[in-house]
Design a protein that fits this description.
Strand order of the largest sheet of chain A: 1-2
Number of strands of chain B: 11
CATH superfamily of chain B: P-loop containing nucleotide triphosphate hydrolases
Radius of gyration of chain B: 19 Å
CATH topology of chain B: Rossmann fold
Number of domains of chain B: 1
Order of helices and strands of chain A: HHHHHHHEEHHHHHHHHHH
Largest interface: A-B, 21 and 28 residues
Structural class of chain B: alpha/beta
Order of helices and strands of chain B: HHEEEEHEEHEHHHHEHEHEEHH
Strand content of chain A: under 5%
Structural class of chain A: mainly alpha
CATH class of the largest domain in chain A: Mainly Alpha
Number of strands of chain A: 2
Radius of gyration of chain A: 33 Å
CATH architecture of the largest domain in chain A: Orthogonal Bundle
Shape of chain A: flat
Oligomer: heterodimer
Chain lengths: 476, 316
């Protein structure tokens, strides 16, 4: 139904535009108009479309509660006497019957008789509301249009008024983005606050024990419910460092190759390929880590371990022989691979932003390509590259899928890359997936973690953008 | 080497009829025969050494000093499009040679062939022979990197590296391993800055960023950077086009001083500048060398109609 109304509105708007333009043209004869006819047309269009859209939006928002109110008014006593959720079920069934579908449950004697009556009444209410909304919208459009028609005069400043409307519409769109972000922060902060009422913030930030399972029975083992986030942040840090050890050099060097050494054809092939690599969903990297890289690394270390057992390094051998699939190294290495295109693409842009005149200057001094890169380009681009790396770091910290699939769940406080560690994001995922009770400290701790993570990446991003910005200003 | 920012009185008299109050300082007044630099160099004009220019379309009077660079039938192609047609030109040592002509006439392209900067442009091809001291610089055995240490270049816009003033000048000596100690480097930097007439302005802030200098200072810094490796030739591609008149005058004085030690080739859009600083002038048009000769002759008695039209401002 709403589509028909929308079509009618579009037709009315088009008519308003054409009519307004024509009318403006006619009324302008003999006078010197302030605005062009097309602007008057646009002004009429806005006055037709905007009020009608507003009415339609209000109607769709308020029709459901209004319908509930109206249904409640004429309810027979037998239905009104039902418990809350039974009454809802009854009306749901009445709704189904009204649409010609069979009822979901069998209602007892007095109710069964009311059912068809109520069904007809509900259909009537619904139809009235729907028609009412549509007619109100069309009325609003007509009223708006009439108002606009009175406004079409040579001295009307239609140009400025249309500009004002456009300004307003654009402002609302950008405000929505900003307000949504603020809303996310507010909801995070609110739930985190509830969490910090149950767990002291200092225990959370500096505790070294993480086991969010809370004992249901008193004698349960290992379910003490400790919320020290240090092991999680240590795990995140470890994986991030491994990832950057992979991504920073490879990404940077490939950027240098692309921007300074590669010929035009090579570049035309490699750059899009790298960008495709950046578009691979992280869950695919997750498979790759869990099913390919993890087992490979495990076999590799196990073989070394078996070789060492019995020798002078027996202890190390014993340890290596028992290394598992899920280790920080796997997750970190694959995350590093994921970040390579990100780093190289950003660094490539930054290196390309270094003016050609600096390269010419260096070459003209008799410097080779690598000398130019090392002594002129990299120092000049260093702030920008540092910014790019920081952005990569904040992506590594926030990355979820790869670590969920490859890093493990045990919150070990360790910096051994062969150990299983867990990260903040993995814990948030495990805490919030599945059926959860939204009042326990266990579930709420996810919000505490989320807020902390958000603040860390926010600070990193701000620093990175600052650096990139100062770098940009240098040559402008 | 004695350092002077301004030309001394001795030079003024040595230069013969140069008297700024009497006549404007046109290039023709400092002819190579009478300049002290020429006398100091002690070299006889080696006219017989220069291969006669055979291109019939070029009106030419032979240069007067020893030939530093001899270009024969040089053509340049950018991705198959020809930008320079069979240019043959002799460039004498210890002289300022100006390349003039309207935009897109190939003068900068020709300049860039002399230190093989066209190599750095993908799709550029150079044919013909360019001999520097009778040695083909496009020869396989010549490493462009080493060639560029002998042929310095100054660009249109000052392009100091975003490093300290000291680091900028020390760049060349460092990459070519010309110095072995910090003290020696300090000495090289100081000398180069003094020769470029910048020392007194920056001596107390050598470690501050070169980006903080004014445009004219930056251009002199770039010249200091170029002469720090003791090149034989300095190529200048419109070195003053981004500068105000005062900074321009300062650079022109500097060019005049540097002429004593280096072979200088300058591309310029300003005919007045060519007349002021150069002893030899070559006029390019549509990728061809039209006329070359002593600056005085070119500006006072051009033999080609197109040259006359250009220098009198009828086109260009």
């Amino acid at each position: 139904m709403i589509w028909i109304y929308l079509l009618i509105l579009i037709a009315l708007s088009a008519a308003a535009f054409l009519g307004g333009r024509e009318l403006a043209r006619r009324r302008a004869i003999g006078a010197k108009p302030h605005s062009r006819p097309g602007q008057h047309g646009a002004y009429a269009l806005i006055w037709v479309a905007a009020p009608a859209l507003l009415v339609l939006i209000l109607a769709s928002v308020f029709s459901a509660p209004l319908q509930r109110q109206l249904t409640a008014v004429g309810t027979p006593d037998a239905v009104a006497a039902l418990e809350h959720f039974r009454r809802d079920a009854f009306f749901a069934d009445a709704h189904r019957v009204g649409r010609g579908e069979p009822a979901l449950q069998i209602w007892e004697r007095p109710l069964a008789e009311h059912l068809p009556v109520e069904a007809r009444r509900m259909v009537r209410i619904e139809r009235t509301l729907s028609w009412g909304g549509g007619i109100a919208a069309i009325l609003a459009a007509i009223l708006g249009g009439l108002f606009a028609l009175t406004q079409i005069k040579p001295q009307t400043r239609a140009r400025n008024r249309v500009e004002g409307w456009i300004y307003g519409a654009l402002f609302v769109c950008s405000a929505i983005a900003v307000l949504t972000t603020l809303g996310i922060i507010a909801s995070l902060a609110f739930d985190s606050f509830r969490f910090f009422q149950k767990v002291p913030i200092l225990d959370f930030l500096f505790g070294t024990q993480w086991s969010p399972q809370i004992a249901i029975r008193a004698d349960q083992v290992g379910s003490s419910g400790a919320f020290g986030a240090v092991p999680l942040f240590a795990g995140t840090l470890l994986i991030m460092v491994i990832a950057m050890c992979v991504a920073a050099p490879i990404g940077l060097f490939s950027a240098i190759y692309l921007s300074e050494y590669a010929g035009r054809t090579t570049r035309a092939v490699i750059k899009p390929l790298l960008e495709i690599l950046a578009g691979v969903p992280t869950v695919v990297y997750g498979f790759f880590a869990a099913l390919t890289v993890g087992p490979l690394l495990r076999v590799f270390f196990n073989e070394i371990g078996l070789f060492l057992i019995g020798g002078p390094l027996d202890g190390l051998g014993q340890y290596l022989a028992l290394v598992q699939n899920q280790m920080a190294l796997t997750a970190g290495a694959v995350m590093g691979i994921m970040l390579i295109p990100f780093v190289s693409s950003l660094s490539d842009d930054i290196l390309n932003a270094v003016p050609q005149s600096l390269r010419d200057g260096s070459f003209a001094m008799g410097a080779t390509k690598s000398e130019t890169v090392k002594r002129v380009l990299l120092p000049a681009a260093l702030p920008g590259i540092a910014g790019a790396l920081l952005l990569a770091v904040s992506r590594a910290i926030g990355e979820t899928m790869i670590v969920t699939m490859a890093a493990g769940l045990a919150a070990n406080l360790t910096f051994n890359p062969l150990d299983t560690v867990t990260t903040v994001t993995v814990q948030i995922v495990t805490l919030l997936t599945g059926d959860q009770e939204f009042n326990s400290a266990k579930t709420l701790s996810a919000f505490g973690l989320g807020l902390t993570l958000f603040l860390v990446t926010l600070v990193l991003n701000i620093i990175a953008h600052r650096i990139v910005q100062t770098y940009r200003e240098q040559y402008d | 080497m004695k350092f002077r920012i301004f030309r001394s009185a001795e030079d003024q008299t040595g230069a013969g009829p140069v008297d700024p109050t009497e006549t404007p300082r046109m290039g023709g007044q400092v002819l190579p025969e009478v300049t002290p630099s020429k006398a100091r160099a002690g070299a006889e004009p080696r006219l017989e050494d220069a291969t006669p220019v055979s291109n019939a379309t070029v009106v030419d009077s032979p240069p007067v000093g020893p030939i530093k660079i001899a270009a024969r039938d040089v053509s340049v192609f950018y991705e198959g499009k020809q930008a320079l047609y069979d240019v043959s030109l002799d460039i004498p040592d210890k002289t300022v040679t100006a390349l003039i002509g309207p935009s897109g006439c190939g003068k900068s392209t020709f300049l860039r062939t002399m230190n093989r900067m066209n190599d750095t442009i993908a799709g550029a091809k150079v044919t013909g022979r360019i001999a520097m001291d009778d040695e083909d610089i496009n020869d396989r055995s010549i490493d462009p990197v080493l060639l560029r240490a002998r042929v310095g270049m100054v660009f249109q816009r000052p392009n100091p590296f975003p490093k300290s003033i000291y680091e900028n000048v020390a760049y060349g000596p460092k990459i070519h391993g010309l110095v072995s100690s910090k003290a020696e480097m300090d000495d090289v930097v100081e000398k180069a800055l003094k020769r470029a007439g910048l020392w007194e302005e920056v001596a107390d802030r050598l470690q501050s960023s070169a980006m903080g200098l004014s445009g004219g200072q930056q251009q002199r810094l770039v010249i200091a950077r170029a002469i720090a490796v003791n090149p034989e030739v300095i190529l200048m591609d419109e070195p003053c086009s981004a500068l105000d008149p005062i900074a321009t005058a300062r650079i022109e004085e500097l060019i005049d001083e540097l002429r004593e030690r280096f072979c200088i080739v300058i591309v310029t859009h300003s005919m007045a500048q060519a007349a002021r600083v150069s002893q030899r002038t070559a006029f390019f048009h549509m990728g061809r060398l039209v006329e070359t000769g002593d600056t005085e002759d070119i500006f006072q008695n051009p033999r080609e109609r197109r040259t006359l039209d250009y220098i009198t401002g009828r086109f260009g």
